[in-house]
Design brief:
alpha+beta; 36% helix; 7-stranded mixed sheet; 166 residues; single chain; Nucleoside Triphosphate Pyrophosphohydrolase; 5 helices
């Protein structure tokens, strides 16, 4: 978390636990999106598409109905590859080296929430990784074939990625 103050590093986990305990996921997400729109109208995120036996690991976030990929925002001083690895460890307990994250694919989208640039990295695994759902941001996960995933509600960047890779 280079570039973040010690206060932010301490407060973030406490805020996440408070939101979870009070079940305020959607409210917290709405407040964050409003803050983000004002303070950071163009955000940058890094996600990981984990592939195992032709299936993709999709996550269900506590604050969103559509399925997505594990990942999140890129902190100051981080590369997209570093952010993707950090988020994967935080959200699912999966540790990877930056070199394992391959084939970056990037999309920039404009929405009511502002402009968002997302970089998606592929991670190909030979055995099913042990996944530890954090229960705060991520409340569930599913291994789906691409055609099964496309039949589900997906974030637009994930849908674009699957259509590009299919």
């Amino acid at each position: 978390m280079a570039g973040e103050s010690v206060k932010v590093q301490v407060m973030r986990p406490l805020l996440k636990k408070a939101v979870a305990r009070l079940r305020l996921y959607r409210l917290a997400s709405g407040v964050y999106e409003l803050y983000r729109l004002i303070a950071k109208p163009h955000t940058h995120g890094a996600l990981v598409a984990i592939w195992w036996e032709q299936r993709l690991l999709l996550v269900q976030c506590s604050y969103r109905r559509a399925l997505s990929l594990p990942g999140g925002g890129i902190a100051a001083g981080e590369t997209p590859r570093q952010a993707a690895g950090r988020e994967l460890a935080e959200e699912l307990g999966i540790q990877v080296t930056p070199e394992e994250l391959l084939d970056p694919w990037q999309i920039t989208e404009n929405s009511a929430g502002g402009r968002n640039t997302v970089t998606i990295f592929a991670l190909h695994v030979e055995q099913e990784p042990a996944v530890r759902v954090d229960g705060l941001e991520i409340v569930g996960c599913h291994w789906l074939l691409p055609e099964e995933a496309l039949a589900q509600p997906l974030t637009s960047h994930l849908r674009g990625y699957l259509c590009k890779t299919g």
